[in-house]
Amino acid sequence: xxxxxxxxxxxxxxxxxxxxxxxxxxxxxxxxxxxxxxxxxxxxxxxxxxxxxxxxxxxxxxxxxxxxxxxxxxxxxxxxxxxxxxxxxxxxxxxxxxxxxxxxxxxxxxxxxxxxxxxxxxxxxxxxxxxxxxxxxxxxxxxxxxxxxxxxxxxxxxxxxxxxxxxxxxxxxxxxxxxx
Length: 180
Hints:
Layout: H1 8-18, H2 22-35, H3 40-54, H4 56-66, H5 73-77, H6 80-87, H7 90-109, H8 113-139, H9 143-148, H10 151-174
Helix pairs in contact: 1-3, 1-10, 2-3, 4-6
C-alpha cells in the first residue's frame, strides 16, 4: 500500500471504503499506524468508514419503504416509521449519540484539564478493549464453515473484493487524492 498510495488521504480512504467491516478497517489502519508512526491514515480511515456507515441511515428507510413483499403480516400492520426505527442498527444510533455527546463536551469543556485527562484515559481503555474485541473476533472464525459455503460463495466474495479494490483505486486516482 505504501508504494501504491502516496498520501495519507489516499491510504485512509482506500482502507475505509474497500474493507467491509468497521472493526477490520480500524484494525488495518491501526496496523498501518504501528508500522508508520502517523495517526493521519488511521483518522481518515475511521472517518471514511463512519461516514460510509452513516449512509445506512438513508439506505435502510428507503429499502423498507420499497419493500412491498413482507412475509410477516405483523410487520405490515406497523407504520412505516416503526418499521424504519426497528431496522436502524444499534451501533448507528450509538455512534450518533456518542458523537453528539462528545461534540457538546468538547464545545463546553475544550480547555478543561479534567476533560483532557479523561479523554487520554478513555483512549487507552478503548485501545485495550478494541484489541480484546478483535482477538475474540479472530478466535471465532472457523475456516471449515467458510469453505462449507461452497466455491460459489467464495468466488462471489473474491469478486466483490476485487471490484471494490479496482473501483476505489480508480476513484482515488481520478479525483487526484494520491498526489503529494
